[in-house]
Design a protein that fits this description.
WH-like_DNA-bd_sf; mainly alpha; sequence-specific DNA binding; Homeodomain-like_sf; Transposase family protein; 4 helices; IS150/IS1296_orfA-like
């Protein structure tokens, strides 16, 4: 589960965009000011969708893993 919901992040961003500074916003919501800056940047670049949780773990198929291992062994590559 994400530490902060998309709705919470959007509320923080909207509060910031209403004219308050990063430190004021972070103090009001009890978060670090760098989170405010990151969320505002994501919102400005991608809209509300930029505040959603991203899955950072890439899942590779067994076939892909086999091909990678095979290439490493055949070509003498390092991992």
């Amino acid at each position: 589960m994400a530490k902060y919901s998309q709705e919470f992040k959007l509320e923080v961003v909207q509060y910031y965009l209403s004219g308050f500074g990063r430190h004021q916003v972070s103090h009001k919501f009890g978060i670090h000011h760098s989170d405010v800056a990151k969320w505002v940047a994501n919102y400005n670049n991608h809209g509300a969708e930029g505040l959603s949780r991203k899955n950072t773990n890439t899942v590779y198929t067994p076939e892909f893993k086999f091909k990678v291992i095979q290439s490493v062994l055949e070509q003498g590559l390092s991992v």
